[in-house]
Amino acid sequence: KEGGDEEEWEEWQEQEWHEQEWHEQERELTAVGIDHRRSRSHGQPAAAITCHPCYPGPTAAWIGECWKSQDWLLWEGRSRNPLSTLPGVIALTVALDYMHSKYLGMDPYMFGSTLYVLCYMVMTGTPEENIVWCWAFVQRFYKEHRTTTRYRYLNTLTMFVRKKGYPKLRGKAAEIRYFGPALLALWTACADPNLELHQQIKLMLKLNVRLESILTEHPDEFALPGPAAHEFESSAFLMAQLQTAIAEHFVGQGQQLYDITSKTHMVLHCALLSKHISPRVSWCFAGEDNMKVE
């Protein structure tokens, strides 16, 4: 973080997002294809993609409304950032940062809410007792599966419970990336297989883990091969659909869980582009504190 700059941006972005109801069908949202905290010094983003809500799936109407290169070049309101004046540089050549979109964007809400449901709703002990048990389970999983990047501690509720707002897991990007398999195993061990909601959460976590497995299986490709790109895209969209359905379930109970933010939308753009450029190519791990990423 740069003097709290990134945290300020995330708080501002979250506030802006929640000024609109995330389930409103006519909402439009803008996904900015650069590292946001570095764009503000120029007064405007280098490029943007405007589209409609993305959760109905890969055939959603918003996909057909994404920018085409010629349309963007003819748009009088396009960004005048100096970068966009370079030959061949348009909004469509700016890749979204998968690290900030998923590991520091979508996943913290998904994983934090899952831990919250476990500790406050599923398990029988007190939340404080439950998180200690969960952490012991995760440590055993780390050891048995030789997890390369691990949390040093995750035994307090403050790691995902905030004073206000949705649960959100704290951690570095690589810690969160490698936490998915452990959380899936933890949920499977504690959940009720006879409850539809529990099975939805399990499938959502499995799809999340599968996304990371696909990237690990193709470390050197500039673009994911056809079958892998297809699986990556379909898994990402189904995962987002499940998260939306789960969030709506808890909204009906008056509970703030599994927040859907603009970062979820950005992850889906990364999935759509994976057949052209792998998310590994454009993720911003360079310069971060934790670099142990396979």
In summary, what is this structure?
The chain has 294 residues and is mostly helical. It is 52% helix and 3% strand. Strands 1-2 form a two-stranded antiparallel ribbon.
Structure, explained:
The two termini are 23 Å apart. The protein is 52% helix and 3% strand. The protein is an all-alpha fold and 294 residues long. Helix 5 runs parallel beside helix 8.
List keywords for this structure.
294 residues; mainly alpha; two-stranded antiparallel ribbon; 12 helices; 52% helix; globular; disordered N terminus
List the SSEs and their pairings.
Layout: H1 5-18, E1 29-32, H2 36-39, E2 48-51, H3 61-64, H4 69-74, H5 98-122, H6 127-145, H7 173-177, H8 180-190, H9 196-217, H10 226-252, H11 262-273, H12 279-282
Antiparallel strand pairs: 1-2
Helix pairs in contact: 5-6, 5-8, 5-11, 6-8, 8-9, 9-10, 10-11
The helix content is 40-55%
Main sheet summary: 2 strands, antiparallel
Strand content: under 5%
What is the number of E strands? Answer: 2
Average residue pLDDT: 80
